[in-house]
Amino acid sequence: MDSLSQFVLGSAVAVVVTKEPSRKVAIWGGIIATIPDLDIFIQYADPIERTTSHRGFSHSLIVLTLFAPFLGVLISKVLKIVDKQKVILMTWLALITHPLLDSLTIYGTQLLWPIADLQSNVMIGSIFIIDPLYTLWLLIALLLILLGYKNKNIRLRAAQLGLAISTLYLSFTLYAQEGIVKPIIKDSSYDQVIITPYPFNTINWNIVKIKGDQYTESCVNIFNRLEIEKFRGFLNHDLLNSDSISRYAKFSNNFYKLDSDTFNNRLLLTDLRMGNHQQYVFNFIVGRKNPDEKNFKSTKPFRVKVGTGRTLEKISLTCKS
Which of 266, 173, 126, 279 is nearest to 217 (CA)? Predict the structure, then answer.
């Protein structure tokens, strides 16, 4: 999820656990909750390694559980709270709720690193990385605390209520995905399927189905409950095999395609999970060939933008034919 959502979630968790709705506790809770995303500053060999390593060790429930007691002791001194056990619990919950929330998006989170490998990425995909209806209630609670609303009980209740409403909303997204959208899918003979919400809402959903070497994109609006097919294409996984492609295959659970036509004599890898056929978010050049050569050769990957304009301008926000 986005940094703001993670910050306000950590803030609410800290306030609810300690029952101290102060600015200091709220801010430190938010800071703790953003720690797992510090892995974005690590330098990797190439963009594919960088993309697939994000939400790795720093999002591991195992690593964060081991780290929490040490950080909690330091935080208890900063907050001057005598009950260190309570602060350690607060720290642990603020840390682990970050990857647990991330796992509900489609990007992929390595919750059990290093026990589980990259192929065990958790990518439930029931919520978009930015969803105002999730973040709003937690943000209101944080603002009441930061603005110093006089009644302490109201500040605490606001954090509790914000946490309850946002959690109920997450439950709704899971129900919408599995209980409403999935039963609407017409062709159930697919090998694999992912169902993800359109940007900023859980009313419209994108569906990607894989069958053999082909994939199909369609969409569903939960109110009209009709699947609309948008696009068909080929995966072309046999065009090239390399370490980078194999790594991305594990990371995306094989929801990627290789395209030899978009760039002259260069091979494009596209992640089918984020974006749609109008414009995908993650695209990488992974191979080259000379004009007189038949087969592609692997090359050091680099990320490219396909299409013109901003990504969200190309990605529909509503499901329509």
Answer: 279
